[in-house]
Design brief:
Strands 5-4-6-9-1-14 form a 6-stranded mixed sheet. Strands 10-13-12-11 form a 4-stranded mixed sheet. It has a two-stranded antiparallel sheet with strand order 2-3. It is built from 10 helices and 14 strands. The longest helix is centred in the middle third of the chain and has 25 residues. It is an alpha/beta fold. The protein folds into 2 domains: 171 residues, Peroxisomal Thiolase, Chain A, domain 1 (3-Layer(aba) Sandwich), CATH 3.40.47; 144 residues, Peroxisomal Thiolase, Chain A, domain 1 (3-Layer(aba) Sandwich).
């Protein structure tokens, strides 16, 4: 079955409770000079962090909001839970199946996608489209959910790069439906950095030295595969790792920084797989997705996976609302 992957609706949720970079540093044992580095060099300010909010309360919030607008939830054949940390629940529990049961999607096949870490959200959109095409039912839909709670220092703080916040998103995926269409998806994984969070020494330095070149290469690939030029992209919708890395990416691409949506970096910091979708919601709320246009989504997962996706908006076809607890 043919059909173009369509992002029919997006919802997002962020906890109401905030913490500054300095407060997170104090709670996680970072030194004051490290907190200053995150603020002054990386451009981080605050993030959402609610210790009393349970994982599934966080993750279900945007999905429940989205499902209220779906005429036939039974049409959702697949529930894909994309997250960064491999194990979010005890070993005897399957997080994706618990999520399916709580959302009342008994007829959906539920599974998690984590292998590409913070790039797993974009991968989940691609997988959802492939599954729907293979299924052959034009009425079928997939629900892609992101969200997690960094529960240890090793996943709360990315060495000298970012501090993780909390957010969750839900995306309804169909084929040839109303909403932005996926024009291309490019991804590359550099397995020599598979240690991810645990990289140290020379491998960590090599990852840092090659980060910008690898990200810009995959962004160019996505643009080329979409059959357009970087100049045709209205806005880059990024992952929110930090400001300084995007300064370098923009320099390498000769891209004006105003064409990268960076407002959420100091507002929410890096929220694992949720970043591109959370940013889409923010853009919608500000009226910045009006009319037709091309948008380039990006994500990088430690491990190391670089991903980029071109979305084409023809007309505004969905609304998205960020809610807060």
């Amino acid at each position: 079955m043919d059909g173009v992957t369509t992002l029919e609706r997006v919802e997002a949720f962020v906890p109401e409770q905030c913490a500054t970079v300095e407060e997170v540093a104090a709670r996680t044992g970072l030194r004051r000079h490290q907190a200053r580095m995150f603020r002054r060099l990386r451009g981080l300010d605050r993030l959402r962090w609610d210790p009393d909010l349970a994982l599934f309360d966080l993750v279900c919030a945007p999905a429940e909001q989205l499902l209220r607008s779906v005429p036939d939830p039974g049409a959702i054949r697949y529930l894909i839970f994309a997250h960064t940390v491999r194990d979010l629940t005890p070993s005897h529990q399957a997080a994706a199946q618990r999520l399916r049961d709580r959302l009342g999607l008994a007829g959906a096949e539920a599974f998690a996608l984590t292998q590409q870490h913070c790039a797993s959200g974009l991968a989940a959109l691609d997988v959802a489209g492939e599954l729907l095409r293979a299924g052959g039912d034009p009425a079928a839909r997939a629900l892609v959910v992101t969200g997690e709670k960094p529960f240890t220092r090793i996943v709360r703080v990315i060495h000298n790069a970012s501090v993780m916040g909390e957010a969750a998103t839900a995306c309804l995926v169909g084929l040839d439906g109303a909403g932005p269409r996926v024009r291309s998806y490019a991804v590359r994984t550099e397995g020599e950095f598979a240690e991810g969070y645990r990289l140290t020494g020379e491998p960590l330095r090599r990852f840092g030295r090659g980060y910008t070149a690898s990200l810009t290469a995959v962004m160019r690939q996505a643009v080329d595969e979409a059959g357009v030029r970087l100049a045709d992209i209205r806005l880059v919708v990024p992952h929110n790792v930090n400001m300084s890395s995007w300064v370098q990416v923009c320099a390498d691409l000769d891209l004006d920084r105003t064409r990268v949506f960076l407002d959420n970096v100091p507002e929410y910091s890096h929220c694992s797989c949720a970043d591109p979708f959370l940013n889409l919601v923010s853009l919608r709320e500000r009226g910045l997705l009006a009319g037709s246009g091309l948008y380039l989504l990006t994500a990088v997962g430690l491990g190391a996976t670089y991903a980029a996706m071109v979305l084409e908006f023809q007309e505004p076809a969905w609304t998205a609302t960020t809610s807060a607890r």
